[in-house]
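Researcher: Let's run the pair from yesterday's discussion. Sequence first, then tokens, for each.
Model: Starting with the first of the pair.
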Amino acid sequence: MTLRTALLASVTMLALAGCSETDDGDKADDTGTTDGDTDAPVDEDGDGSPAGEDCDDSDPAVFPGADEVCDGVDNDCDDLVDAEDDSVTDLGTFYADADGDSYGDLESPVEACEASAGVVEDSSDCDDANSEINPAAEEVCDAVDNDCDGVINGPDATDATDWYPDVDTDGFGDSTATPTRECDAPSGTV
């Protein structure tokens, strides 16, 4: 055998030594993995849940036991989406708006992923049975807290009157004094 033939035979033997067959007939590469089927479950998205258990094996945020969040997706694979699922972690609080004035009743909270018909984010309505009474309404002298500021017939009433002190009780107020703006005359004013 010539030197060249001997070298060629040695290289061929080394190449063949790097590739062997496993017990089941699959060829093994130098990393020890086989090119055939394995018993390891497939987990395409790497979330720790195999495809047979994972309801969306292309999304690593979706798997059994994941937190259900308001996103239109069944995150925890229980066949319930968002607010249908009692385990949603990011529900918002909205308030019933019975009178349709865009202000809700603090005493009627509704937890949901988003506002639906009849509920709003604002809870500052002080009379949800009357759409004329809400934080945007004008306060007027009518013995009602029209603007929900906690003051009935206060100085902010659009039809309130300026009342001047009448110290000498002659029926005429002191025009140089600072007036008091109210719906009804405070004692000692005209």
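Model: Moving on to the second of the pair.
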Amino acid sequence: KTVIGKVVTTRNVLQGVNNTFGGIGVEINAAGTAPGSTIVERTTGVAQTGGGKSSILRYFDITPTTNSGLNATFVFRYDNSELAGQNANTLRLFQSDNGGLVWMLKEGVVNTTARTITLTGVNDLSRFTAADADNNLSSAFEIIVASGWNMISVPLTVADYRKTILFPTATSNAFTYDGSYKVKDTLQNAQGYWLKFPASPQPVFMSGATRTSDSVAVKTGWNMIGSLSVPISITNITRSPGLNLTSPFYGYQNGYSVANTIEPGRAYWIKVSTDGKLYLNAP
């Protein structure tokens, strides 16, 4: 007898005491900090999406009073009717801190007999769902940065835009250009930044949601613009009325070069005739 729709309950979750929330399909046992009064909303019959993939037909929104340092064991239960063709043997848990916009892979141990996925060491709670190995809801991205200065951008919609989170190995501030160079602690999509890295090339990994279109405000003169999640030809960049490009696009990798393609994770200089917007669109 499968219930489809929403079920909500609120329970007081104590430290070190397993709470089953009335049997609606989730269990929390917090060994660290007590979550206190905790709202759990279960939605069934609806899939979550991310990275062009879909979850099973169940997710939980969990809102505790205290939401840090929980060190909790988290049990996610599912019904076989909710698998929607996915392989129960390879189910993993995904968590989103922004209502399903960006998903982070959390893994978990599957028990197909009990129909559970168990995750340990959970320090904060939000939205959780499950998907199998062929349905990775998180978008992972790798940027190879050179030693020294790099012109970079943020090609994904991410959960945390702080420079220290996105580029933890950078040895400089992030500098953007707005008539002069300015330090930014929190970065933005579609903007370009200078960042310096240590003496050897290295990969930088990022997870988030794919961006296939964006717009960036530009001002008369030189501007640093960012990228999308996929390469786009400069012919796919359109302009607001009356705005003209007065230079080629210039990228930087151990020196400047004219760019015909905007590559994910990179940034570019462009000079324009007047204030306006550039529109980036994947084909």
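Researcher: Give me one sentence on the second I can quote.
Model: The CA atoms of residues 166 and 260 lie 27 Å apart.
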